Amino acid sequence: MITINKLKIKEINTFVTLNIYEGITYISGKNGSGKTLFLDYISKIRKAKTKNISGNTNMIYMRQNFSFYNRIRVKEFIKFVYNLCEENYINFYSFLKRHHISIDIEKIKNTKMGMLSGGERKLIYILTILSLQRDWYILDEPFVNIDKETKKEIINLILQLKKENRNFILTNHDDLPYLLEHVDYVINFEEVKVHF
């Protein structure tokens, strides 16, 4: 469980107090409501001045905005992320095989990231993140630029990983009925904020 106790998000003049339990948690809210700022604090990208958050260890954060050097090849991107996390990138390929992911990685592994479509880049990004061994995955807008069929495949992958005791915090601006059918908790971010 991740516990947030009177977290001050100064950028939006708000305090947040809540618990995020194991499983899949969906955070809803309007554009500009502060969801991404909140996730930045949970993931430790932004530092809280006091110890307001506990349980936020062994996690990885997929930010909604993905920009990366366009001339790097897909396989180099995967290796780069794995090197940052001090893991062997070969695990990525075994992850795809183990979970029966329908992407033809052999076909695109030598393609430069800038030559992929926005959806293909996003898919490589999310699959790389999900292939890393973590207890918690924070996914901010993971389905942007992803086609309907691939969204469903990613949701099914998340459900498989949940069975392996992995936990998820997700945001999404489009209501995805298939996703909402499978989440364990829904948090309306507007309802947990207290303005100061």
TrEMBL record:
Keywords: Transport. PROSITE patterns: ABC_TRANSPORTER_2 (PS50893). GO terms for molecular function: ATP binding; ATP hydrolysis activity. Residues 7-196 form the ABC transporter domain. The keyword Transport applies. InterPro entries: ABC_transporter-like_ATP-bd, Metal_Ion_Import_ABC, P-loop_NTPase. Belongs to the ABC transporter superfamily. This is ABC transporter domain-containing protein. It comes from Kurthia sibirica.
